């Protein structure tokens, strides 16, 4: 339980670092007319980098740098989205289907938290999110870049994500997405 709490604190701190500049820039523009719609309802698929920043302390537990493919589909008029992430390294990948709750924080920008499950393709081999299957929690931000592109960033915690270790895994991910309807 102590490690789980530590993981939540870590995600919260990382998300604050990512989201704080958005809030600070919003205060500078307060003299301008405020937009009527916050957030984005964009569906997108993107590619980028993925950095595992933890290590389970056993063989094949090393932190892994790699890439990611991420997708989002908005679920109707609800504040929910279906998301999918594939985080890969040199030896294997973690496939993570998720459902997220999205909050519009600025025009064209959402903060989100998600819950899902990480399936490691080749168990025992290191991925950016550990080396075994487990619960995956994500916090992040996404923002429109013009009409066709999205910029996204998130931190994902894999709970009990290492074989022979109770450690949780942490992966920082980001990239550029292409918007579709």
Q: Helices, strands, pairings?
A:
Elements: H1 2-28, E1 43-52, E2 65-74, E3 80-88, E4 93-106, E5 109-120, E6 134-145, E7 149-158, E8 169-180
Antiparallel strand pairs: 1-2, 1-8, 2-3, 3-4, 4-5, 5-6, 6-7, 7-8
Would you mind describing this structure in some detail?
This protein is mainly beta. It has one helix spanning 2-28; strands at residues 43-52, 65-74, 80-88, 93-106, 109-120, 134-145, 149-158, 169-180. Strand 2 and strand 3 form a beta hairpin. The N and C termini lie far apart (41 Å).
Task: Write a concise keyword list for the protein shown above.
15% helix, eight-stranded antiparallel β-barrel, 181 residues, single chain, 8 strands, mainly beta
Overall spatial form: elongated
State the major sheet. Answer: 8 strands, antiparallel, barrel
Portion of residues in beta strands equals over 45%
Kindly state the number of beta strands: 8
